[in-house]
Each structure stands twice: as structure tokens, then as C-alpha cells.
Amino acid sequence: MINILKIFMVLVLVLISMKILAENNQQELGMSATGTFEVKLDPQNDEGVPAGRMVIHKEYTGGLVGKGVGQMISKRTEGGAAVYSAIEEFEGSVNGKTGSFTLFHNGFMSASKQSLEVIIVEGSGAGELKGITGSLDIIQENGKHSYVLEYQQ
Fold first, then answer.
1. 14, 21, 100, 130 - which has most CB atoms within 10 Å?
2. CA distances to 19, 21, 29, 84 from 15, in Å
3. What is d(CA 50, CA 48) in angstroms, rounded to the nearest whole number?
């Protein structure tokens, strides 16, 4: 009887250890949220400056539910190359956790290449999103916007 009890206790300890390892691996691997968003850009009339500025208003649905508000500075050259940077404040929920965080956008486009990086500013998370880090991929197809947020917390 004592041997069966010892075997049972060892099995329980193994199962608990496996659960803890699985939870730690999930945190290390990160999580994702996907969905769509609507965006409205309001051009600002800044005279005498070398770049344009717009106020950004976004409405997110899917894994992100909430609003994004920010400002974008952009420049297009006569040759067609363009750059932009933006700071966006998101407030809402990520996969059911509520709070807020800051996104930083940095993009470049020319005839030969393009790049876009959108990151969560480390330390900007608040509420249940405190400690969130990660990046946001924006997908534009047929005039629609979708996203994939890869994050850790």
C-alpha cells in the first residue's frame, strides 16, 4: 500500500511539474491576437514644415477590442519614396485583458522595397496589460486593414 501511495505521489508531482513547464513555455513562446481595424486619418494644416502630420483614429475588432488614437508624421519625395513615424495609444482589451499601451510605427516605402515595424513600447502597458511587449503586423488587402499582434506578458 505504501509503494502505491509513493507511486501516486510521484505521478502527481510529475503532472504538476509538467503543468508549470507548459505555462512557462507558453509565456516564453508568446501569444497572438488577430482581427481587423478601421482607420480614419485627419490631415493637420501645419504650414512651413517639411513633412505632413495627421491625427489617427482607429477602431479595433477581434483579439484587440478598443480604440487607437495617435499622430503620424510623413514625407513623400518627388521620386515616390515615402516614410512615416507614428505614436498610437491603444485602449481596450487584448484577448479579454483590459488596459492600454503605446504603439510606435516606423515605415519606409520606395519602388524597390518597403518596410514597416510597429512595436509595443516597453513599459507602456497599464491595467491588466502591464508588462506587455511585442509587435503588430498590419496587413492591407483590397482596401481593408487587418492585424496580427504577437505579444508576451
1. 100
2. 6, 10, 21, 50
3. 7
Contact 138, 152 (CB under 8 A): no
Which CATH number fits the domain that encloses residue 51? Answer: 2.40.350.10
Rg (CA), the chain: 22
Is 14 among the domain residues? no
By mean pLDDT, which of 29-33, 84-88, 104-108 is the weakest? 29-33
The cell numbers describing 98, all together, are: 483590459
Question: Which residue range(s) make up the domain with 104?
Answer: 31-152
Among 136, 101, 106, 137, residue whose Cα is nearest residue 121: 101
Show contacts of 22-30: CB within 8 Å, 24+ apart: 27/152, 27/153, 28/152, 30/134, 30/150, 30/151, 30/152
How far is residue 92's CA from residue 98's CA, in Å, rounded to a whole number? 6
Long-range contacts made by residues 66-73, C-beta under 8 angstroms, separation at least 24? 66/90, 66/91, 66/92, 66/93, 67/91, 67/92, 68/37, 68/103, 70/103, 72/41, 72/105
